[in-house]
Amino acid sequence: MNFELLGQLIINGLIIGTLYGVVAMCFVLIYKASQIVNFAQGEFLLIGAWTCWWILTQFQIPFFWGFLLTLGFMLIFGVVLQVLVLRPMIGEPIISVIMVTIGLSIFFQALMKWLFGVFVQPFPPIFATESINVGGLNVQPIYLLSMAISLVVMVGFAWFFKFSRIGLAMRATAFDQQAAQSLGISIKLVFAVSWAISAMVSALAGVTVGVVNGVSSELSFFGIKVFPAVILGGLDSIIGAVVGGLVIGVLENVAEFVDGQWLHWGNLYTVAPFYVLIIILMVKPYGFFGTKDIERV
Amino acid sequence: MAKMHPCGDFRTSYRTDATLFPTRISLYFCIASIIAACFAPLFLDIYLLNLAIQIAYLGIAALGLNILVGFTGQISLGHSAFFGFGAFASAWINNTTGIPVFLCIPLAGLFTTAVGMIFGIPAARIKGLYLAIATLASQFILQDFFNRAEWFTGGASGASASPFSLFGFDFDTDERFYFVALAYFVIMYVLAANLLRTRDGRAFVAVRDHYLSAEIMGINLTKYRILSFGVSSFYAGVGGALFGHYLGFVSVEGFDILLSIQFLGMIIIGGLGSVMGSVLGAAFLVLLPEIMEYLVGLVGSTSWGNIPAITSGLAYFKEMAIGLAIVLFLIFEPDGLAHRWKQIKAYWKLYPFSY
């Protein structure tokens, strides 16, 4: 058994897992605030990454300013999308809501392919690329940075929902929409803010992955990988989303290791999370942290 | 004078409520349209026939999905995997056992039913969104299976499917295969329309409308949820088998999530919970890319024709049109084309005095 490789893979898994966690958090944020399942989450990453790439290569401005512009764009994008497309869907059955986000996801994916092509485009070099040694394992500094960013985002989320006024309003809305409305919380504002935050943080994750691997339409696959993570943690638990992301990230890499060492089936990296997902749903239908629905006639 | 359909609901017995043809005219209309469809190859060229065949096999699969989503209220994001499974199963049965193709197609449907019921097991416990994600997993697992099971699918090189033949007569050209597709289509359509008149079909609708009430009324939820998956997979399998024998070759690519979404798009655009709507939706999504191609051709002949982004972006325009159609229909016409059709009928029924 090759322990060094296993260790390396687990580290990779944790790093990619924190990114899954961040994206899953955005997904849960939208679900909690507006009861909308966003199948276009992966496209948010894609749009964010392409926008940032385009600004950087087109105008040759420093990364920091380009990134800020991207965040500004995503803010507007999230709000506009919510107002134009998702607001008319309030009160529609869950199938319609799921389908509308799926439709958006197809549309944006094709649009991005048309605008930017199907090939991987590398980001302009921003950070040093020589790998550093952590505890005997080689780690790229950009990975460490991405992990740090993810952690900062997670702490930011925690602070936002615990202490900020709008964050508290969002939690109240998630808990009981009518009661929140009667207390003077603007539901429209809460929905718009949740989509804007989700779009911005997804773009951050997209740019991070883009800087490491280059930007391509593969990024939108993150949006699908998020589902196992979210289901594992339960759809309406932000902590669950983070834990689920980490578990799925590690699981993928361990599955690849097991496959490479003994099974030789190939492709387990992509499929293993979905097997786990099916099993979890059979055993614990609401995930490990999700609230169980109790329905009355 | 033939019995007219009264304006309003004046049914007094369960028999009239469950009737397939409410008036004599609707029966004649139905028979006339089948006869007209039989003579279509005389008027349509190969290109249009090809589109008609596509509408037939995709329409069959969409009917199945509508039984699952529109009637039972369970969303499935893995329909194209079952469609693909049917295509491979039919080719495999035919190639290994030599059973004639026209028997292989329903057999493939039964195989797919079994697979669909296995993946439907999570549906016994979960619903709505969680179920959508579980079926998404089944899509990826089956797609991975297609890539891996070389004995079944031929792996990366694909499987060859022999053409449809009956008593030594090969249905190998588009004109001939059109009748095969039409026959299967009519049978499956009538079966689906009839399903809703039976106890099981009504149980499906009850499960959709309120599953707790349905259970209290004595409907076995687990049974009907899994059964619904089975029926829908049967339709997908038959549609897929027709697809396989039409092309003569089944490749592992193409049964991806995009096709699953297209199936969902068909029933959304056609109308959830409408048998005719599934077919209208299938026709819409088959014709939409052709219309896009025509439009791009039109633009290409004007002064914009030398912009490479427009002429080379056709594949992306087609995808964008599908996504946009789904979104726009959901916002502006959530009940789909079937609802529109009903409104047109109602308008003419009450013509001078419409309200």
What tags apply to this protein structure?
heterodimer, A: 297 residues, mainly alpha, two-stranded antiparallel ribbon, 2 strands, B: 355 residues, ABC transporter involved in vitamin B12 uptake, BtuC, two-stranded antiparallel sheet, 4 strands
Task: Report on the architecture of this protein.
The complex is a heterodimer of chains A (297) and B (355). By secondary structure, chain A is mainly α. Chain A has one domain: Orthogonal Bundle (ABC transporter involved in vitamin B12 uptake, BtuC). Chain A has helices at residues 3-34, 41-59, 63-86, 94-116, 141-163, 165-175, 177-182, 187-213, 221-233, 238-263, 268-283, and strands at 132-134, 137-139. In chain A, strands 1-2 form a two-stranded antiparallel ribbon. In chain A, helix 3 (63-86) packs across helix 8 and helix 9 (221-233) packs parallel to helix 11. Chain B has 355 residues and is mainly alpha-helical. Chain B has one domain (38-353): ABC transporter involved in vitamin B12 uptake, BtuC (Orthogonal Bundle), CATH 1.10.3470. Chain B has 17 helices and 4 strands. A two-stranded antiparallel sheet of chain B has the order 1-4. In chain B, helix 4 crosses helix 10 and helix 4 (46-71) packs across helix 14 (275-301). Chain B starts with 13 loop residues before the first helix and ends in a 6-residue tail after the last helix. At the A-B interface, helix 4, helix 9 and helix 11 of A face helix 7, helix 11, helix 13 and helix 16 of B.
Q: What does this entry show, briefly?
A:
The complex is a heterodimer of chains A (297) and B (355). With 297 residues, chain A is mostly helical.
- Uncertain runs of chain A: none
Order of helices and strands of chain B: HHHHHHHHEEEHHHHEHHHHH
- Cα-to-Cα separation, first versus last residue of chain B: 26 Å
Beta content of chain A comes to under 5%
Helical coverage of chain B, percent range = over 70%
Spans of chain B of 5+ residues with little confidence (pLDDT < 50)? Answer: none
SS class of chain A:
mainly alpha
User: Mind summarizing the main beta sheet of chain B?
Assistant: 2 strands, antiparallel
Total beta strand runs of chain B: 4
Strand content of chain B: under 5%
Total beta strands of chain A:
2
